[in-house]
Amino acid sequence: MIRKFKFEDLDIVMKIWLETNIKAHNFISSSYWQGNYEIVKEMLPNSEILVYEDNNTIQGFIGLMENYIAGIFINANNQSQGIGKSLLDHVKENHSELYLQVYKKNVGAVKFYLRESFAVAKEQNDENTGEVEIIMNWTKI
């Protein structure tokens, strides 16, 4: 079930955020993600967050700021089971266009978004990490 984030979800959502970022971005020091943890924890409740819950357990979430997808984060034990696609499809129903940034070295995520009809708009360097990011767009047909 997909539902809106509730403040009491914050700790589990942040645990998923940290673990997923460290695993998906092994080319960036884990200290970078740990160092941003408190900032994200403070900002997250001000964003639009949808969680995917099964048997009263949050398995993943998607974060939005208007048409910008800040990220899709799925618990390591639940990845590649269609949860990310379900969250993305849910968001697509309510938007005519979306965009996001993804690290070029996060090959799995890049493939996922290409498969989900996102197109590469441009590449740029992330000043914080020095890594190349790909800006991707999606428009409802």
Would you give an account of this structure?
By secondary structure, this protein is of the alpha+beta class. The protein has one domain: Aminopeptidase (3-Layer(aba) Sandwich). It is built from four helices and seven strands; from the N terminus they run βααβββαβαββ. A seven-stranded mixed beta sheet has the order 1-2-3-4-5-7-6. Helix 1 (10-24) packs antiparallel against helix 2 (30-43). The radius of gyration is 14 Å and the shape is globular. The mean pLDDT is 92.
Keywords:
alpha+beta, globular, 141 residues, Aminopeptidase, 7 strands
Largest beta-sheet details: 7 strands, mixed
Order of helices and strands: EHHEEEHEHEE
Distance from first to last alpha carbon: 26 Å
Spatial arrangement of strands, main beta sheet: 1-2-3-4-5-7-6
Q: How many domain regions? A: 1
The average pLDDT score comes to 92
Shape by Cα distribution: globular
* Percent in helix: 25-40%
The CATH homologous superfamily corresponds to Gcn5-related N-acetyltransferase (GNAT)
Q: Structural class, judged by helices and strands?
A: alpha+beta
What's the CATH topology name?
A: Aminopeptidase
Count of extended strands? 7
CATH class annotation:
Alpha Beta
Radius of gyration: 14 Å
Portion in beta strands:
25-35%
Low-confidence regions:
none
Oligomer state equals: single chain
Question: Quick gist of this model?
Answer:
By secondary structure, this protein is of the alpha+beta class. The chain has helices at 10-24, 30-43, 83-93, 107-115; strands spanning 2-4, 48-54, 57-65, 68-74, 97-103, 119-125, 132-139.
